Amino acid sequence: EVQLVESGGGLVQPGRSLRLSCAASGFTFDDYAMHWVRQAPGKGLEWVSGISWNSGSIGYADSVKGRFTISRDNAKNSLYLQMNSLRAEDTALYYCANSVAVAGPFDYWGQGTLVTVSS
Amino acid sequence: QSALTQPRSVSGSPGQSVTISCTGTSSDVGGYNYVSWYQQHPGKAPKLMIYDVSKRPSGVPDRFSGSKSGNTASLTISGLQAEDEADYYCCSYAGSYTRVFGGGTKLTVL
Questions:
Q1: Residues A59-69 pLDDT 10s
Q2: Could you tell me how many helices (H) and strands (E) chain B has, helices first?
């Protein structure tokens, strides 16, 4: 059974940093690209960032470019999102999701970890 | 990276059909056959319903179908059932390893 379990969320002050993690199991992690998708409270889905199986291709939404860094450790079956210079508008439930192809759909999703940016 | 445009809400009676549109540009929806659709029930993670414009993952009922014409993709749900009531989001590949979602559509089954 595919499992994606996010962690690392919490309450953080504006301007501070936070690192999210996603632990994957039930599939061959290094066969898949991985992504972060977020959803602000009561709002829609927003793609945040994606990384190819070998970290050779990475993309970011304009809203986080230069502040967030995605990475992965295939030996640990883990995905990460380093979030710096956090803003109130980054408050959201952050999901990790996998996709088998570069432009493919998000096949499986975790349950999300909540990030709240507030003073 | 502007969000794709979806209607805020649609509705239909059980047994009827509804279509949800998703309008983008030639840089996303119109430029690639990589449009997917997700169903999200309240408090739950999204679920993949359609990928590559019109393909259905295993386990998704054939009442769900997808299509595309130009810069607009569409999700059609036929034979509406109560459990179809949910939020629906389209998503497109937008080049350079980026993606863009639609704003979401709330489907109400009357």
A1: 999 999 999 99
A2: 0, 9
